[in-house]
Amino acid sequence: MKDQFYILVACTLASVMLAVIIVLLIGLFDARVDNDKIFAILAPAFQTVVGCFVGILGGRAMKDDKKPPE
User: Fold this and answer.
1) Cβ–Cβ under 8 Å, residues 13 and 49
2) Comparing 46 with 22, which gets the higher pLDDT?
3) Quick check: helix, strand or coil at residue 68?
4) Cβ pair 53, 8 in contact under 8 A
């Protein structure tokens, strides 16, 4: 069960990061979009997503460490 949770979190993080990178690349090559505004919008969103998943994985790891050995 624990391994499935980590795999789910890792796959979700990877898919979100891939989507952000694809949108960034599409915006960079679109002549109607100002490139400076792309980075201003996506950088905080990207950092929030990465921080959230790092917090989830770190919290799960700390919770698992406190269990008494069986």
Assistant:
1) yes
2) 22
3) coil
4) no
**Dist. CA 59–CA 65, nearest whole Å:** 10
- The whole-angstrom separation of Cα 40 and Cα 55 is 23
| Residue range 37-67, pLDDT digits in tens | 777 777 787 788 788 778 877 777 776 555 5
Domain ranges of the chain: 2-65
Tokens of 40: 């201003």
Alpha carbons 28 and 37: distance in angstroms, whole number: 10
In the 8-state DSSP scheme, what is residue 33? S
* Residue 42 · residue 23 · CB < 8 Å: yes
Quote the mean pLDDT of the chain.
Answer: 77
Tokens of 49: 């997503």
Given this model, what pLDDT does residue 2 score?
66
Please give the average per-residue pLDDT across 17-29, as a whole number. 83
